[in-house]
Amino acid sequence: MNKILNRAAALAAASFNGQGQKAPIESPSGQEAYSINYEDYSEVNMENYIIEMLHITKEFPGIIANDDITLQLKKGEIHALLGENGAGKSTLMSVLFGLHQAEKGEIKKNGEVVRVSNPKDANNLGIGMVHQHFKLVEIFTVLENIILGVEPNKAGFLQKKEAREKVMELSKQYGLHVDPDAIVEKISVGMQQRVEILKMLYRENDILIFDEPTAVLTPQEIDELMDIMRNFAKEGKSILFITHKLNEIMSVADRCTVLRKGKCIGTVEIKNTTKEELSRMMVGRDVNFVVEKQEEKLGEVVLQVSNVTVPSKISKKDAVKDISFEVRAGEIVCLAGIEGNGQSELISAITGLEKMSRGKVTLCGKNITKAPIRQRTKSGMSHIPEDRHKHGLVLDYSLEDNLVLQRYHQPEFQRGGFIKRPAVRSYAERLIKEYDIRSSQGAITIARGMSGGNQQKAIIAREIDKEHKLLIAVQPTRGLDVGAIEFIHKQLVATRDAGKAVLLMSLELDEIMEVSDRILVMYEGEIVGELNPKEITVQELGLYMSGAKRNMEKENSYAE
Predict the structure, then answer these.
(1) What is the pLDDT of residue 484?
(2) Radius of gyration of the chain from Cα atoms?
């Protein structure tokens, strides 16, 4: 075993096919570097597993989503599932949860072969799943969503009191504090995730699947979720954790299985690997975690926001309070802040998705305060929205139609009111290649059937490629793997270097510090700090985001 551990770097970077066969990995120069035998270090025959997915193959039209994958989960462990967008992670977990049926392979629980034909079978086996896009009924209450499908009743009458007591007990036990009577559509995304977790606990699941659980959470909510997962593991629950975020894997996981293009690359012990080695396994090459950029060359003012106030939808207070700032050509300005402090409402007002009660927005010297969205687009605004499903895509349209959503009326893509299909197809295929958008049937793939990360890449490709003077990018790397994040950061910097203005909104502290030229921190609807990322630390930025820095400055001014 010591001999194996001494080769940890090689193990983490090597490719495996999950069948005890050697599989080579290419070095950066394209030469075969080395190959390792998977069974050398996995000790497959010496472990007892609560769940085994053996030689799973799942096919869709035009693609093998899972190609002979073996995954084994120990009792009481947190097992991460890592891979690029479209690598087959969610599909594999959907097979385990009964949403898909594999063409080949078998599933075992505690060494016994089981059949999982649907989610009900999965629940009966103690398997629960929190999906990347939550499966909640928005007009129902928290309690109604938790008990939906397993409602306690006597003589056909619903026993809500009994259910409420159980939910509140679970909520207290695991620190998942929720209001059982709150309507789901009115609570935060982080709170909705708690509801999904409570659904699993209410059903007494002991095998918990989390599909990209942190993609829509704030840094504070992510920390809370990591603590919750650790507590689950201590209690003997087994967790399968799909993520792209290497820091989270290093922080919370015991082992990690890596998928690439539908194949199993290998499984490693987290204590014996590094972020760099995991990223190399995932994308097959070295990834640069540092954003490289030159000094900004400022040009004219592109976006001017003057005294903008936006009312809140959930309270009588204003979500945005008398905010003014500008973004110049050749710079990346980032709106930073803890979620819920007005950034989303401000972006919605600038892009025309929400109305402001006061203020003025000017784009390239033109007043667009009351302009419709198409007019803002024609004036030179591109927008990568926060919610890719609600505002970014028409999910039942094809990929190619989504890629020309804002340009189909241009002469390049239509004549006499009829779409020029060959032109649309050619354009879509170019973007698919340039941005590595992976889909089962290429340009004609229905957007709904694509992975979340590839849906995001499609939006980014559309918005960056079209003619624009201002790019508004809201959480542009949400749900993307490290290779795609590296590429998108390069695209943002290239946009800025081409003399365009970039307004970025992000919750990722590393992204804010690495990509931004200037940071505007929002707290309780106001800008409380304008910062230079070269002159501050992450800790200082955190103080501004929490409101502590502003409060300290106020106290100091009072003292003077």
Answers:
(1) 82
(2) 25
Beta strands in 134-192 (DSSP E): 153-154, 157-158
Residue 153: pLDDT band by 50, 70, 90 thresholds? confident
CB contact at 8 A, 387 and 336? no
Is the per-residue pLDDT at 18 higher than 50? no
What is the distance between the alpha carbons of residues 71 and 47, in angstroms, rounded to a whole number? 13
Q: Which of 177, 204, 231 corresponds to the end of one domain?
A: 204
73: enclosing H helix or E strand: strand 63-73
Q: Report the alpha-carbon distance of residue 347 to residue 342 in Å, rounded.
A: 9
Distance (Å, whole) CA 239 – CA 423: 47
The per-residue b/e assignment along 171-206, b for 16 or more CB within 10 angstroms, e otherwise, is beebebebebeeebeebeebbbbbbbbbbbbbbebb
Same domain, 110 and 146: no
* Reported pTM: 0.68
223 and 199, same structural domain?
no
| Domain coverage including residue 175 | 133-204
- Is the Cβ–Cβ distance between 458 and 479 less than 8 Å? no
Q: What angle do CA 352, 354, 358 make, to 5 degrees?
A: 95
Alpha-carbon distances of 250 from 241, 243, 253, 343, rounded to whole Å = 12, 11, 6, 30
Based on the fold, state whether residues 25 and 143 are members of the same structural domain. Answer: no
Same domain, 497 and 370: yes
In this structure, is residue 386 part of a structural domain? no
Same domain, yes or no, for 411 and 552? no
In sequence order, which residues have a C-beta less than 8 Å from that of residue 111 and are 6 or more positions away?
48, 49, 52
Residue 536, both tokens:
């501050």
- Pairing outcome for strands 255-260 and 78-83: parallel
Choice among 245-249, 348-352, 365-369 with the minimum mean pLDDT: 245-249
Residue 299 lies in a domain: yes
What integer is the mean pLDDT of 141-155? Answer: 85
The answer to whether residues 211 and 132 touch, using CB atoms and an 8 Å cutoff, is yes
d(CA 256, CA 235): 20
Tens-place pLDDT, residues 188-221: 777 888 888 888 888 888 999 988 887 666 667 7
How high is the pLDDT of residue 216? 64
Residues 398 and 510: their CA atoms lie apart, in Å, by 34
Helix 275-283 to helix 482-497 angle (10° resolution) is 90
The pLDDT value given to residue 550 = 63
Q: Are residues 356 and 473 in the same domain?
A: yes
* Torsion sign over Cα 54, 55, 57, 63: positive
DSSP 8-state assignment for residue 388: I
- In 337-439 the beta strands, taken as DSSP E runs, fall at 358-363, 366-367, 381-384, 414-415, 418-419
Q: What's the rounded Cα separation, in Å, for the pair 118 and 127?
A: 11
Mean pLDDT value of segment 505-531? 91
CA distance 293 to 493: 7
91 shares its domain with 20: yes
The domain boundary residue, chosen from 204, 237, 266: 204
